[in-house]
Task: structure prediction
Amino acid sequence: MTGGRVVVLGPAGRNFGAGMSGGIAYVLDENGSFPARVNRQMVGIGKLESPGEIAEVRAMIEKHQAYTGSLRARMVLDEWERMVPLFVRVMPNDYQRMLACIERAHGQGLAGDEAVMAAFEENARDLSRVGGN
Result:
């Protein structure tokens, strides 16, 4: 995945996130075992807390349910308030660093391609990325 969003409603295998270069995955972790299966060298994990992201994840699940008739998606939607805290947000470290660089470029008055190029140049000089952090 290079820049999209994905919601995982079922179990995830080990080494989750290895090779993930961009985007965000939202994984439903009902039994709390998911963090042990994540490739922490490549990605960071966190909670689904932002109201905007919560709405986006719900909309994705609603579309999935509408397109496929998924009983699993229906159950998650029916128990939404209980399910939201069980989602784990997974984002590649490099992608998170790049988004922060773009935000700083916007703060300097840059927009569009200029902001992206400034962020790319800043990220390329960032020695912390060499170690994968």
Remarks:
- The longest helix spans residues 51-68.
- The chain has a mean pLDDT of 85.
- The helical segments are 51-68, 71-78, 80-83, 93-107, 112-125.
